Structures are given as C-alpha cells and as structure tokens.
C-alpha cells in the first residue's frame, strides 16, 4: 500500500504554523489514493512537536531530534529527509511552504530525479500521475502541472487547504529515527543566527496586515497605518515601491520580492495591484483595497473596495474603530 | 576570480494583470507585445552582489552574465553588459520551459564549458513561474554547495560567506568555492549606470552558445509537465463601499469588516 509522508518542520520544538494545512493536504491525497499517512517531525528538542503530531491521525510518526538542526540548515535537512525517504519509500511528500521547506523540496526533487510542485492549490489524480494547479504571475493565472514520477513532492499554498482538526486520541506513538546525518560530509556550515526584533511583528504570523504602497507618497503617512495596525493587533507591510524608496524597511515588503502572507484581513492602501505584489498576499482571507483610481487592478482581486482618498477613508475607519472602543468601555 | 550571474528574461512584473494573456498554445503567459520584457528583478540583485565582490577585490574579478531561454529580446539582455564583462546566451526552443531540471543541466554544462567558474550568483526566484528551483537544481547537478537567500555575500579565495535572510532575522552561513549562491531583495539598492556606460555596453555583443556546443539534449523532464495555464479574469467579486465622502466610507468599511468577522471585536487598548 502507498504512503504519504508529511514533513513536520519545527521551530523552537513546536510544529510550524502550516503543519495542519499539510495534514489536510495529506488526508486529501489519502482519500484520493487509498494510501496511508506518515509524519516525520524534524528539528531540535522536538517534544512539543511530537506530541502534537501524534494527533495528526498518521499511521507512523518518526522523529529526528538533532541539536544540529536547531537553526535552519537546508542542506542537512535535505540529507535527513533523503534518509527518511530511503527508509519509508513514500509515494508522495507534503512539504511546508516555508523558506526551508521550499528549498529542501527543490533539492530533494533534483536528487530523486522527479518533479515537484510549489504553492499547490488543488490536486486530482489521473492515470498518469497527479495533476495539480498552482498560481503563476502573482496569482493572475493558474498553471496545471502533472507530476508523474514518484514520490510526488507537493508544497501546498498557504491558505489553500483548510487546517485539519487534530484527532481526539493519539493515532500512533512517536518513534525516533536515526538519520545518518554526518555534518563533516556536508558542504555548507551555519555560523550564527541573528534574530531581529526591531522590525515589528513577524509578518507571516500576523492575522491582520495593513499595507501601504506607492500611493502613500512618503514615509510619514505610514504612521497612520501603524495606528490602525496597533488598534487591530496587526502588522504593517508595504509593496515594493515604499521599500525601494526607503520609506519603510525592506523587511516589510510583501510580494514576489518580499514575503508571502495569508492573514485573515489584508488592507491594501494606495497599492495598485501589480502581479509582483499580489503574489505575496492573494491567499489572504479578506482583502480590502483603498485606492483613488477606480480602474486599479487591485479591485479585481479584493473582497471589499473603497474608491477614494486614503487619508479620508482611513481617518473615518480609525474613528469608527475608536467609537467601537468607546462603546466597549461604557 | 570568475563569477557567473544567471539572468532570466521575464514579462515585466509591474504590468497590471489585465495586460497579460495566454499564448495560443495555452502553455504560457505573455506580456503585451509593445511592452518589452525585463531581466528578472532578483537577477539584477545577483548582478549587484557580483559588482560588490568585484569592487572588494579591486577589480580582480571577471563577471559573466549567462542566460538560457528562447525568444530573447537582445536589447533587454544586452543591458547586462553594462555591468558584466561578457554575456553568454543559450537560445533554444526547449529552454522555453518551466522544467527546472532541464534548465539546470543546460546551465551546468555551460558553466563547465566556460571553465574556472568559482562562484555562480542567481536570483532567489523568477517573477514569472516563481518556482525558485533552478539555482538549487544547478548546485545539485554540479555537486557544488549552495547557499540561498543572501542579503550580503562576501568571498575570499577559497570560501564564500553569506547573510541568509530568515522570516525573523538572518543567519550567517559559509561554504567552500566553487559554489552557487542565490540573492534576495534585502541586498539593498542597485547602482544606476551612466549614459556613457550604457552606450559602451551597446557596442559589445553577446556570445551565443548552442545546446550542441554543450552536448546537451533537448528532452525536457517527462516527470514534470505543464499541461496549460489559464488567466483568471478576477479572483474575487469586489464589494464597493459606496459613499463619495471618504470619511463616511471609512466608517462603513469598519462596520462591514466587523460584520464579516475580519475584525472580531474591538477591545479597549487594541486587540481583536
């Protein structure tokens, strides 16, 4: 019988945020094929991740707990996953849509001489393999791709598969897996991990994002976006022009040349909707566009739109939020 | 030191979606004919990284721009000769593909054909297919180390060290040469060439290399096939919040988002 392997990436021992979407993808594959699901949890001090993975409904849960994997190390992680594949011979692998997951997938695919698909939105089995769809050109178009050689390597798009619910009782016990990782034979070496804290919230985890574009006209107006983001416990982001012109930190950029985010609410202020930006935010649950150009392409990709001067619109918006706050107090 | 910078011609990503169309064979997306393609933005950053290395080495460095593809617009690609010492083009119908493995094999053969290449720099991904696989596959193919997502690249004669961007900061990584390094937009500002440099570049010609020269076949990977692409007219039905008065529209927007659940409730002191 075939198997689907879900790669459980960990961060400080916890499974990464997209794990349950991977499980959902894995379950869908199992439904279409009649295969069973395995999970491998990889990282350092993975205890919390292992316990959570036991609720995934997987038949087998393998754990690679290795202090050398404390910081992201794509080459080492590829070696570990290649070892796991040797042992389990999976027919499909579901990888996380993280920097590490994307890189490890590409390396493994070349090594195994097979194809892989990034940002998968849907999957359908046919006689020759698995046909998947994925966004191209900033989500303006979709491409369908057939993966035939196995294992199929699939990286689900953020938000495309609803997060799976954990099962009530552990479905299997986590078992340590001894990988043959030998860091002396690896060609790359990680030196030091510097975490930055001064660039605001981690954009990829924020539930609300307020983003500004070229239409903001300068650095100063971003204060208003911060005020709104603070009120909504969200984060501020930007399209490429404000980053290129130095109005905001490059770390805040969302888009092809920046981060990919999928918050509950994405407010695009003064952003026209070039493909390069939409690639980074089109998976958001609700997209709000505020722009003074009624023909701006962003309106074709937004859930709600306001045509007007963002200064006025945001002033009214903030006022309404403040009224709401006043009501809560009284 | 000989550095190869991988460049790719792509439709201008600043084009609005409405300007893109599907090719007659349904296999790819085309930009409008009157708007020239551009060199992938990340690749320009890779070129900038190469120039910084050249400066650091007091000019003791040869930069070769390398591109594999089809339907090249020479005017566009030739601009890389402003920065690069040479431009090598491999043009073949089979290279108009999104199969990263075929591209990696061809680029790998070209790099071996050039000889003495110590560092390959490329963008972290291209803005058309957005797959980000070619440099990684190339490194695997050459059996060279690969460091990715560099916002800074430093080399000495035997090794390369990068600052690798992470979602919450960066990490330092190093490896020996020869190596493949991918560069990300956090690298910082590009330099703008003078008119004189542009004119000088125009007088120089690219070197054309064929797949035959490289002894690489034209077979694309049968394990991975693009079946077709389709444009989305729109991805969502936009509900417009009506009033002409911007302030009032803003107020209504807040109410609608509350109702929608996008803003859960508004707590004193912030929070949802």
What Rg of chain B is obtained from the alpha carbons, in whole angstroms? 22 Å
CATH superfamily caption of the largest domain in chain B: HUPs
Multimeric state: heterodimer
- In which range does the helix fraction of chain B lie? 25-40%
Number of strands of chain B: 15
Radius of gyration of chain A: 22 Å
The structural domain count of chain B equals: 2
Please work out how many helical segments of chain A DSSP would assign.
8
Structural class of chain B: alpha/beta
Morphology of chain B? globular
Domain unit count of chain A = 2
Strand line-up across the major sheet of chain B: 11-10-9-12-8-1-6-7-13
What separation lies between the terminal Cα atoms of chain B? 55 Å
CATH architecture of the largest domain in chain B: 3-Layer(aba) Sandwich
Largest interface, per-chain counts? A-B, 107 and 101 residues
Secondary-structure element order of chain B, N to C? EEEEEHEHEHEHEEEEHEHEEH
What is the CATH class name of the largest domain in chain A? Alpha Beta
Give the CATH level 1 class of the largest domain in chain B.
Alpha Beta
What do these coordinates show?
The complex is a heterodimer of chains A (330) and B (272). Chain A is an alpha/beta fold and 330 residues long. Chain A has two domains: 3-185, Rossmann fold (3-Layer(aba) Sandwich); 203-329, Rossmann fold, CATH 3.40.50. Chain A contains eight helices and 17 strands. Chain A has helices spanning 19-33, 47-53, 74-88, 99-112, 222-231, 240-244, 275-278, 310-329; strands spanning 3-11, 14-15, 36-43, 60-65, 92-94, 116-120, 122-126, 129-136, 141-147, 152-156, 174-176, 188-195, 208-212, 235-238, 265-269, 286-291, 304-307. In chain A, the strands form three sheets. In chain A, strands 1, 2, 3, 4, 5, 6, 10 and 11 form an eight-stranded mixed sheet that branches. A five-stranded parallel sheet of chain A has the order 14-13-15-16-17. In chain A, strands 7-8-9 form a three-stranded antiparallel sheet. In chain A, α5 links the parallel β13 and β14. In chain A, α3 (74-88) crosses α4. The longest helix of chain A has 20 residues, at 310-329. Residues 325-330 of chain A have low confidence and may be disordered. Chain B has two domains: 2-214, HUPs (Rossmann fold, 3-Layer(aba) Sandwich); 239-272, no CATH class. Chain B is α/β, with parallel strands linked by helices and 272 residues long. Helix content of chain B is 27%, strand content 28%. In chain B, α3 packs across α4 (134-142). In chain B, the strands form three sheets. In chain B, strands 11-10-9-12-8-1-6-7-13 form a nine-stranded mixed sheet, sandwiched between helices. Chain B has helices at residues 41-56, 74-78, 100-114, 134-142, 195-203, 211-214, 246-260, and strands at residues 2-6, 9-10, 21-22, 29-30, 38-39, 62-69, 86-91, 117-123, 146-155, 159-166, 169-176, 179-183, 207-208, 224-231, 239-240. The model of chain B is unreliable at 268-272 (pLDDT under 50). The interface between A and B is large, with 107 and 101 residues.
